[in-house]
């Protein structure tokens, strides 16, 4: 396992919010990070953080106040191997002090907390553009294809210098979250791209993906929906289930590990107790209202129909939540930007409607259709 360390350095200018120092690498994907680097042999994380900050930003320990009690450790994989990174908090003593970049970095930014988060996350937007078939920049016929590093550099330069052109060229690949986080929401170019056509396309793709999930059968199964919305499930379905359902639950749990068996068995028992209690209440109410067996049979038939109605209503609610983007375990960005989910007939119809929305109203005869 490799290790690295660095400082999260902030400054406070008079009359301005706190700003954090980020450096943009001059290699690879040109990502933004605080000053940090690998631990040398025999170094502690704090010693490595001090050395790397001096090498990358030209700041020594005398230039900032270190809060050593603040230590944040994060672990992630690099080329399939785990890497530990230690961060310490530090305040720049002179907020006007200049930063000296090393050859490893090409730009710096003093950013608010939200701006810093946006800068570090923006590479995901560039990744999506590079992974598509869109032309990043024009090339001569005999020129070799751009490398990933060159594509990132072109995108970064265009995004920084001319966001309107960036939107014009790559807007169809951006998510609503991209538009809100990385661009000025009041700019004219944002209002132009946020069209009803874009929302139609997103809705159509989510609907197509949902239909695939329905066909698969697992995501919208009773068990999966119960896990996502347990309270609503109990109110609309669970309270009306009869003993056969609970027997199936107990049988299924016997196939899992011992711990799972005990937990799920207890859950099944609790569920069965609630069902039996509700069933007894219904029985008492039925005896008080009707004493004839034929009427009892009619009540049972009505109850079964009501159960099915509740089940359909519960499923409709779950589908609506999915389409509205409310399922936290779904990557909506990958769905909204997946052209393979486009239904060509729907797409052609929507494009035609969008075209004629700008035209004068005209009634077509049968010969023109």
UniProtKB/TrEMBL annotation:
Pfam family name, one: CCD97-like_C
SUPFAM superfamilies, sorted: Nudix
Bias (Acidic residues): 290-301, 350-369
InterPro entries per record: CCD97-like_C, Ccdc97-like, NUDIX_hydrolase-like_dom_sf, NUDIX_hydrolase_CS, NUDIX_hydrolase_dom, Tetra_PHTase
Domain Nudix hydrolase: 1-136
Keyword Lipoprotein part of the UniProt annotation: no
Gene3D superfamilies membership: Nucleoside Triphosphate Pyrophosphohydrolase
Residue ranges, compositional bias (Basic and acidic residues): 276-289
GO molecular function, one term: nucleotide binding
Bilayer-crossing regions: none
Keywords, alphabetical: Hydrolase, Nucleotide-binding
The keyword Hydrolase is annotated on this UniProt entry: yes
Chain intervals for the UniProt region annotation (Disordered): 33-57, 276-305, 326-369
Protein name in the entry: Bis(5'-nucleosyl)-tetraphosphatase [asymmetrical]
């Amino acid at each position: 396992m490799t290790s690295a360390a660095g400082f999260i350095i902030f400054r406070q200018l008079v009359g301005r919010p706190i700003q954090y120092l980020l450096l943009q690498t001059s290699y690879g994907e040109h990502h933004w990070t605080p000053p940090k680097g690998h631990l040398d042999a025999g170094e502690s994380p704090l010693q490595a953080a001090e050395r790397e900050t001096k090498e990358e930003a030209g700041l020594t320990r005398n230039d900032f106040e270190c809060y050593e009690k603040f230590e944040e450790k994060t672990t992630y994989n690099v080329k399939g191997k785990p890497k530990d990174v230690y961060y310490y908090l530090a305040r720049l003593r002179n907020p006007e002090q200049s930063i000296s970049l090393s050859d490893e970095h090409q730009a710096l930014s003093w950013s608010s907390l939200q701006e810093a988060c946006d800068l570090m996350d923006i590479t995901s937007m560039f990744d999506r553009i590079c992974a598509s078939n869109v032309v990043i920049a024009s090339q001569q016929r005999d020129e070799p294809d751009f490398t990933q590093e060159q594509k990132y550099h072109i995108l970064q330069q265009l995004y920084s210098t001319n966001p309107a052109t960036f939107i014009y060229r790559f807007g169809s690949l951006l998510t609503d979250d991209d538009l809100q986080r990385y661009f000025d929401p009041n700019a004219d170019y944002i209002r132009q791209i946020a069209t009803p056509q874009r929302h139609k396309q997103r809705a159509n793709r989510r609907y197509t993906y949902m239909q695939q999930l329905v066909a698969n059968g697992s995501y919208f199964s009773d068990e999966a929906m119960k896990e996502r919305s347990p309270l609503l499930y109990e109110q609309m379905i669970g309270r009306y289930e009869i003993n056969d359902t609970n027997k199936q639950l107990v049988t299924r749990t016997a196939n899992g590990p011992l711990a799972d068996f005990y937990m799920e068995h207890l859950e099944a028992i609790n569920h069965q107790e609630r069902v039996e209690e509700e069933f007894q209440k219904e029985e008492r109410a039925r005896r008080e209202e009707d004493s004839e067996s034929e009427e009892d049979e009619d009540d049972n038939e009505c109850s079964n129909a009501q159960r099915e109605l509740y089940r359909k209503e519960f499923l409709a609610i779950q589908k609506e939540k999915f389409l509205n983007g409310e399922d936290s375990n779904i990557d909506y960005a990958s769905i909204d930007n997946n052209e393979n989910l486009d239904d060509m007939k729907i797409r052609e119809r929507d494009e035609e409607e969008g075209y004629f929305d700008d035209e004068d109203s005209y009634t077509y005869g049968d010969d023109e259709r």
